[in-house]
Amino acid sequence: MTDRPADGPALPDGPGDPGPDAASATPAASEVATLPDRRTLRAEMWLVLWLSIAASALRSFLSLLNSLTRDQPLSGQTATIVATYVADRPWLDAMYQATRISLGLIPVLLVLHLLRRSGEGPRAIGFDLRDWRRDLWRGALLAAGVGGIGLVFYLVAFQLGMNVRIAAADIQDSWWNLVLLLASAAYNSVLEEVIVLGYFLHRARQIGWRPWQAIAGSALMRGAYHLYQGFGGFLGNLAMGALFAWLYLRWRRVMPFVVAHFLIDAVAFIGYDLLSGKVSWLP
C-alpha cells in the first residue's frame, strides 16, 4: 500500500521503488516520485530536528531547570546570547565565532540537500529570491510589529519575575563587533526559520499532519528553544511561533520570516550593545 502526502501524488512504499508507471511518467511526475515514503520522511524530519532545534530545546529546558533550582530568582540571573570567547586575542575570538556559526548552519545545509534529493529544492519552502521585494516588505512589517511587542512583553515578564535578564550581546570592544552581531543575527534567522518553520511545516504537511497540528508543533518547538530565557521567553516565542507558522501556511515562503527574524535580532544585538548601562529602562 502506498502513502499519499497531503499535497502530492502517491508516494512509493520505500526508496528506490519507482512503481509500475515510472517509464511512462512525465518529467514533473518523475520528480515528485523521488519523494521517499512517509515513514522515511518522518524519520528524516525528526533526525534533522534532533540535530538542531530539538536538541537546543532540550538544552534550554535543562538551563531553565538549573535557573529554577538556584537560590536566586529568575530576574536575578542573566542569559547571554552573543558573548566573547577569547577577550585578549580578538583574532582567535573571531575564529571561534566563525566556527560556531559555520558549524551551526550545517543542519540547514542538510535540509537543502534533502529537499534537492527529493526533487523539490529550496523553492519548495520559499527559500529563494524570486519574490524578494515582497519578502522584504513583509519581513520589515513583521519585524516592526513583532519586535516592538516582544520588547514590551520581555520588560513586563522581567518585572514580574518570569524571565531572566537577557544580555543580548556581551562582547569586548573589537574591530569586528558589528560583523559579529550581524552574522549572529543572520545565523539565528536562517537556522530557526528554515528548519522550525519552512522545513518542519513542509514535511509535516507531506506526512499527513493537519494544519493546526503543524502550527502547534512549530510554535511549541520555538517556545521550547527559548526556555533558557524563562517562562516569559517561552510564552512570547510560543505566540510568535504560532503567528509565523499560520502566516507561512498562507504565504508558503520562508524568506519573509528570515528577513523579520534577522531584523529583530540585529536591532536587539546592536541596540543592546549600544544602550546597555546607559538607559534606565533596559535591564
**How would you name the oligomeric state of the polypeptide chains in this document?**
single chain
Percent in strands: under 5%
Number of strands: 2
- Globular, elongated, flat, extended or rod-shaped: what is the shape? globular
Number of helices: 10
| Biggest beta sheet summary | 2 strands, parallel
* Mean pLDDT score: 89
Write down the Rg. 21 Å
The proportion of residues forming helix, as a percent range, comes to 55-70%
Could you name the ranges where pLDDT drops below 50 across 5 or more consecutive residues? 1-33
Number of domains: 1
Output the helix-strand order: HHHEHHHEHHHH
Class computed from helices, strands and strand pairing: mainly alpha
Strand order of the largest sheet: 1-2
Distance between the termini: 59 Å
Structure in a nutshell:
By secondary structure, this protein is mainly alpha-helical.
Care to describe what's here?
The structure is a single chain. The protein is mainly alpha-helical and 283 residues long. The chain has one domain. The chain has helices at 27-33, 38-50, 53-68, 90-104, 106-117, 132-159, 177-206, 211-225, 231-251, 255-275; strands spanning 78-83, 165-170. It has a two-stranded parallel ribbon with strand order 1-2. The longest helix has 30 residues, at 177-206.
